[in-house]
Amino acid sequence: MTDPAPRLHYVFLDLECTGLTDVDDIIEFGLIGTTVDLQVMFEQQLLVEASDRAWQHMLDTPIVRDMHTTNGLIDELVAARAAGTLPSVADAEQQIITRLKSQRRRDGGPLILAGSGVWHSDMHVLERRTPKLRRLFADRRIFSTDVFRHVSLETTGEPIIPLSGSNHRALDDARHALEEAREIRRIFAGRA
Fold first, then answer.
1. What is d(CA 64, CA 100) in angstroms, rounded to the nearest whole number?
2. pLDDT number for residue 189
3. Which residues of the chain have pLDDT under 70?
4. Which residue from 110, 92, 90, 88 is spatially nearest to 101, judged by alpha carbons?
């Protein structure tokens, strides 16, 4: 008998960090779990505590500080720090793993990491900061929508779908990548 319940296949992920060096930490996770046909099963956004060193590095790096000031992330982090409600990266990692395992694929295979920049950026941050979470994802199957976006820009001068007011918040960026993925699938379905 087959399991009629939809199962998790893709995890669209975006991370906001204090920067991109080895000193830096993850400060926000945005995840969207979908079925193989890109139907949303869940969305999750988590703010995370950064080390004092990473926090200071963010404040000392104008481009990162300004971006996270403009998008409101620093204010949210300050308020959550003051309230003592920010989980550690390890606690956030375990919370995410528990959720992903509870909705795992029927065949027990690895999940497919998806999103924009997941291959050249997020995967490496996951490996460094959340290695247990990283191991849940397939090594060689990654759906990195930015590759298709760049081909579209170079070929037509237009993105696959317009980026409407990106604010560099993790869940919003994951949602945009999901919309790109749906459009990419629509384009390829037209060729079938």
1. 30
2. 87
3. 1-4, 105-106, 164-166, 192
4. 110
- CA torsion 106-111-116-120 (nearest 10°) is -160
Place of tokens 């029927």: 106
Give me the residue label for tokens 């926090």.
55
Sign of CA dihedral 47, 48, 51, 53: negative
Q: Are strands 26-34 and 10-17 parallel, antiparallel or unpaired?
A: antiparallel
pTM above 0.85, yes or no: yes
34 touches 40 (CB < 8 A) = yes
For position 190, what pLDDT does the model report?
Answer: 75
Secondary structure letter of residue 20 according to DSSP? S
Region of 179 please: left (phi>0), alpha (psi -120 to 50) or beta.
Answer: alpha
- CB proximity list for 109: less than 8 A, separation 6 or greater: 138
**Beta pairing class for 10-17 and 137-144:** unpaired
Residues forming beta bridges with residue 161, ordered by sequence position: none
**Computed over its alpha carbons, how large is the radius of gyration of the chain?**
17
pLDDT, tens only, 47-65: 999 999 999 999 999 999 9
> How far is the C-alpha of 168 from the C-alpha of 72, rounded, in Å?
10
- CA distances to 35, 117, 158, 161 from 148, in Å: 21, 11, 11, 11
Is the CB of residue 114 less than 8 Å from the CB of residue 11?
yes
